[in-house]
Specification:
Blueprint: H1 24-32, H2 42-46, E1 48-53, E2 59-65, E3 74-79, H3 89-100, E4 103-108, H4 129-142, E5 148-153, H5 155-163, E6 175-181, H6 187-195, H7 198-218, H8 234-245, H9 251-256, E7 272-277, H10 286-289, E8 297-302, H11 319-328
Parallel strand pairs: 3-4, 3-5, 5-6, 6-7, 7-8
Antiparallel strand pairs: 1-2, 2-4
Length: 332
């Protein structure tokens, strides 16, 4: 399997933002701010829409941009966070940078994210790993000649790690590395952190309610979210929707099925890099300190960065973009 050998790792680079960019909330807001990816770019202009049909008949929407050079340096598949999409600022910004450096870029949407609510009758739940793994495998197999990398942000990082776990089905042969930015390892703790901060809670509730209204309008015979939309916390809303629309007993049961703390990640099948920040307002840094990891997994916990941010200066380009290019071309 590609990448099964162990090689010495260089010391982790350190993220050093300008002093006026060290605030955790500013970093977190900048991560999703449209000012980081204004207008269009060669990646967007050359992207084509594709719909991937998985083994269970689920359809997932993606945007695929061929490389700007021949031969390509590889393929990078990007997975957004919860209530984000292939067009989130952090996804587009990173995708543009990788595309400009010679990579093909596939921006994959999770179910009911982006413009994909109409593709499936069933609701999105973060436990639906099989369809995401199947979609990643299909994209990677389309270009078997290329080295393939999977990058996930926040909840997308959780999905990326589960794609790479042993026992999760046949390995994706040309998947060489997984990178996770601010991954959600303990969804229960992350949910409670969201609810404890008024502006962050309002942000996610607004996006989740909008998504549910869209799903309800498309499938009025299946869903009525009138009661759910009146709930004022993410935790209580999760409890209600899990009870009404899932096979899980309660939110604790649901969250436990995709929690990745403790020894869960010791069986990752491919090399992985996990980038987190000690000041993340959503993901508790303590979740990373107790991980049991194998020698192919690198954990880099930075002092600053917020959630998905890691913006060092006025260019508003994330620090991890350059890091990933160096990693993927073998300079790290």
């Amino acid at each position: 399997m590609a990448g099964s050998h162990n090689t010495p790792q260089r010391p982790d680079p350190i993220f050093r933002p300008w002093i006026f960019l060290r605030n955790t909330y500013l970093q977190t807001v900048l991560a999703s701010s449209r000012i980081r990816a204004p207008g269009s770019s060669p990646m967007e202009r050359t992207s084509r829409n594709i719909t991937l049909k998985t083994g269970d008949g689920v359809r997932l929407f993606a945007e695929y941009a061929p490389a700007s050079q021949t031969p390509p340096k590889g393929l990078v598949i990007l997975l957004h966070g919860w209530e984000g999409s292939s067009r989130s600022a952090y996804v587009r910004s990173t995708g543009r940078h990788l595309h400009a450096h010679g990579f093909e870029v596939c921006r994959l949407n999770l179910r009911d994210h982006g413009d994909s609510h109409q593709l499936n009758r069933g609701l999105f739940f973060a436990t639906l790993i099989d369809e995401v793994r199947d979609a990643v495998r299909q994209v990677a197999h389309r270009v078997r000649r290329l080295r393939t990398f999977l990058v996930g942000f926040s909840l997308g990082g959780n999905f990326a790690l589960r794609v790479a776990l042993a026992g999760s089905g046949p390995p994706i042969e040309n998947l060489e590395h997984v990178v996770c930015i601010s991954p959600a390892l303990d969804p229960a703790r992350a949910t409670d952190r969201i609810d404890q901060q008024v502006l962050i809670r309002r942000y996610f509730l607004h996006k989740w309610r909008r998504s549910l209204r869209k799903k309800e309008s498309l499938y009025p015979d299946l869903y009525s979210f009138t009661k759910a939309l009146k709930i004022g916390t993410v935790r209580e809303m999760t409890e209600y929707l899990v009870a009404a629309n899932s096979p899980y007993e309660n939110a604790k049961d649901y969250f436990g099925r995709y929690t990745l703390t403790g020894r869960t990640l010791r069986d990752l099948q491919v090399p992985a890099t996990i980038i987190a920040s000690a000041d993340d307002p959503i993901i508790p840094v303590e979740d990373f300190y107790g991980l049991a990891l194998n020698r192919r997994t690198r954990l880099s916990v930075q002092r600053f960065g917020g959630h998905n941010g890691f913006v060092p200066g006025p260019s508003l380009r994330s620090w991890y973009d350059k890091f990933m290019v160096s990693l993927f071309v073998g300079k790290m």
